[in-house]
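Whiteboard transcription, Tuesday session. T.W. wrote the structure tokens on the left side:
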């Protein structure tokens, strides 16, 4: 059995597995997207959204660290079917517990504008796994802004703003690129790139880096008819 712990939603959290009647965590050493995909599909979700290192969003676990150096191909029916170091044979500490965010039909359903007192303009923020985060301005243009405004009930956008024009946000930078055509009714229908965390390939031990900062949070100005 596998479960996700430490989040406000069931589709995200620290990964824990059941062995010999006791729950324990999974070390993030060499834990890649294929293994995360197995976890999400084992739990009945569509796919994986993001890997999450400890302890950026989810708190560390306690007790056993059951799995370490898990190598999945991505097609396994359960995480326990993937090769690993052995049950309880981990060299990790709980500061290396790995988490995951799974994709659901409600991904990117919630969008808001922040940083001003006006309802029609502000910093674009989206909620994933129950956590609000921002959108990076890389490639963010009037097509993307139009979709955001339309999703919020406005007719369209008069401008797309970059470089944290409406102030720096906090929390994750959930979206690195929003590639909208402009005719979508909501941001979740665009070809967005959602990456908050990625493993630095120059480190053999799990060392995580943040690819984006809030210096480049995107913003929009909307208009009504």
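and on the right, the sequence the group agreed on:
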């Amino acid at each position: 059995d596998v479960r996700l712990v430490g989040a406000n939603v069931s589709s995200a959290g620290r990964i824990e597995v059941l062995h010999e009647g006791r729950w324990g965590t999974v070390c993030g050493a060499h834990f890649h997207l294929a293994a995360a995909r197995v976890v999400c599909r084992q739990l009945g979700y569509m796919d994986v959204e993001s890997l999450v290192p400890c302890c950026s969003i989810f708190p560390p676990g306690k007790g056993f660290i059951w799995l370490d150096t898990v190598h999945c191909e991505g097609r396994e029916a359960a995480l326990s079917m993937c090769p690993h170091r052995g049950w309880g044979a981990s060299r990790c500490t709980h500061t290396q517990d790995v988490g995951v965010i799974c994709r659901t039909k409600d991904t990117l359903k919630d969008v808001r504008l922040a940083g001003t007192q006006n309802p029609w303009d502000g910093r674009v923020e989206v909620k994933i796994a129950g956590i609000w985060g921002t959108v990076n301005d890389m490639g963010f243009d009037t097509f993307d802004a139009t979709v955001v405004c339309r999703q919020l009930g406005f007719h369209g956008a008069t401008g797309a703003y970059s470089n944290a024009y409406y102030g720096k946000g906090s929390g994750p930078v959930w979206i690195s690129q929003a590639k909208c055509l402009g005719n979508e009714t909501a941001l979740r229908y665009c070809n967005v790139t959602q990456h908050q965390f990625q493993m630095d390939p120059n480190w053999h031990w799990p060392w995580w880096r943040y690819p984006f900062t809030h210096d480049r949070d995107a913003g929009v100005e909307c208009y009504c008819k």
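Someone added at the bottom: The chain has two domains: 2-103, 110-223.
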